[in-house]
Amino acid sequence: MIELLPIFAWFATGVALRASGMAAPEQAGFMFRLIFFVTLPALAFTTISEQPLTAGNMVLPVAGFIVNLVCVGFALVYLRFVRMEPVRAGTVILGASIANTAFVFPFILAVLGPAALAQVILYDIGNAVFVATIAYGAATRFSRPRDFSTLRAIGKTIGSPLFLAICAALVVSAAALDVPALLRALLDPLAAATMPLILIALGVSMSFARMRDGVVISTVAIRMLGGFVIGIIAIAVLGLQNELALVVITAAAAPIGFNSVTLASIGKLDVEHATAALSLSIVAGLLTTTALLLLGSRWLIGAG
Fold first, then answer.
1. What is the tens place of the pLDDT at every residue in 237-293?
2. Secondary structure of the chain: what % helix, strand, coil (to 5)?
3. What are phi and psi of 63, to 5 degrees?
4. DSSP conformation letters of 15-37
5. Phi-psi region of 207 (alpha: psi -120 to 50; beta: other; left: phi over 0)
6. 8 A C-beta contact, residue 102 and residue 242
7. Could you tell me if 207 and 66 are in contact, meaning their C-beta atoms sit under 8 angstroms apart?
8. What is the model's pTM?
9. Cα 294 from chain centroid?
């Protein structure tokens, strides 16, 4: 448990910065962009390039995409019973389906180590492709149906620094290449900054408005509880065991992704709902992710 204390301290630092007025949600937005375009690609490359590739690892991106897609189905079933305006319905779909996989990175690294971190980063490829295609399409569908282009969305994913870094790392790992010392010296400090930045940015972005809203609570439940159930089914179907199974379950039950707020803003949907659902899920995720990893590491891995 002591290895998780820095995670809670980083998150609390972000909340304190917001409460003191030293940081605002706009700064959190910049931090998320810095993470996505700079530090996370560095972390992905340095972590994955050092890990051997296995057949089990290669199913992770597929699992990440399918878990999110099934959560869309859960959200659509929910919306059949609850009437609401399209701008809010679209926000429910985004929040219920997009996983904040980066949120669980620090937890997995602290409890399971670098090899498991490489696995969850591979899982996040499926999440990233989902965001750029299905999620982006949903945001556009509920606001500007004529603007959506599947090819453009896929192109953005393929051209993103994170995707390119993962592809480069897979090549290095598969070919057993040595990373030049100069490149390692440049990337290692950036990679090390990712975990604190993610938690601090999430703390700064916290919003307590509308957290008690029933639709907000339902959105969080679909994403986290629904994802957890799908994760269990996925490891059973794929025959995953031990550490790999725990990584999939933890990632599948992750809180709502901050991209849900970004896409809600782009699509001119209910941004206040998106922010409230994101914040509530982060608070819940601090508890559920900790519990999943600590209990799962004793049960799933111990049993293996």
1. 988 888 889 999 999 999 998 778 777 876 778 888 888 898 899 989 999 999 999
2. 80, 0, 20
3. -60, -40
4. HHHHHTTS--HHHHHHHHHHIII
5. beta
6. no
7. no
8. 0.79
9. 19
